[in-house]
Amino acid sequence: MYRIDSMYEPMVEALLAARSENKADRWMACVAFWLGRQQMYNVADFWLSLAAKITSGLDAADKDAILDQLNSKEAALVASAADWPETPASLLAIVAGWSPEPPPVDLYAYAATKRYAVETGGIVLGGMRVMTDRSSQSLITGADNYVQANPDALVKFKTAAGFVELSAAQTTAIANAVGEHVQASFAAESEVNARIAAGTITKANEIDAFAWPSNSAAAPAA
């Protein structure tokens, strides 16, 4: 983490990031010369060599604007600039300590969490919001088993909006729709896992963007 009283750290990190992207802008040269003059992190030679290399590649106007502000030693470095200097290991170690890499995301676990949220998120059937949490799934299965044995029975069924009375056929239709939704959710997770294994899904946001079932029994297209 950056210290709140230090402006050096974000400057250094921005400069090194721009260098890694093969950028060479006037601001980079100015920052590198300034860091070299301040002998930041005991790698003054690196900063000055980097600044000289960046300056040597600028267009004439930017290059002249910087040269006008340099001392003779710095100007000589620009004139003799050749290869890009290698970043000292000591500096890389310091920078790594400021912004440590976040722990990698377990994509399979993330996909399972996403599937559970989709699976238990409910569906809309015939304008009726049907809950699909694990408890509701069990109750719906139980109600369907009951009407299979008692086809003339009416079932009191609690939806998100309140109680409704359902026939055996309606109860079975709900049970089938919920079962299909649950299976579609697991089918989606299976496909996501296959893509993770194949390397075509590599980030959590790609899992979120997958075609998860939202309100139907149909499994997402592969």
Notes on the protein architecture:
This is DUF4376 domain-containing protein. It comes from Rhizobium freirei PRF 81. Residues 107-206 form the DUF4376 domain. InterPro entries: DUF4376. This protein is mostly helical and 222 residues long. The chain has two domains: 8-98, no CATH class; 107-208, no CATH class. Helix content is 58%, strand content 7%. The chain has ten helices and four strands, in the order H-H-H-H-H-H-H-E-E-H-E-E-H-H. The protein has helices at residues 8-20, 26-37, 44-56, 60-67, 72-79, 89-98, 107-119, 134-149, 168-198, 204-208, and strands at residues 123-125, 128-130, 155-159, 162-166. Strands 1-2 form a two-stranded antiparallel ribbon. A two-stranded antiparallel sheet has the order 3-4. Strand 3 (155-159) and strand 4 (162-166) form a beta hairpin. The chain is rod-shaped. The two termini are 42 Å apart.
Q: Span from first to last CA?
A: 42 Å
**Model regions low in confidence, pLDDT < 50 over at least 5 residues:** 1-5, 216-222
Instruction: Count all strands and give the number.
Output: 4
In the residues, how many domains can be counted? Answer: 2
- Trace the largest sheet across and list its strands: 1-2
Number of helices: 10
Order of helices and strands: HHHHHHHEEHEEHH
Strand content: 5-15%
Class per helix and strand makeup:
mainly alpha
Profile the largest sheet: 2 strands, antiparallel
Give the helix level as a range of percent.
55-70%
Average residue pLDDT: 88
Radius of gyration: 32 Å
InterPro entries: DUF4376
Domain DUF4376: 107-206
Protein name: DUF4376 domain-containing protein
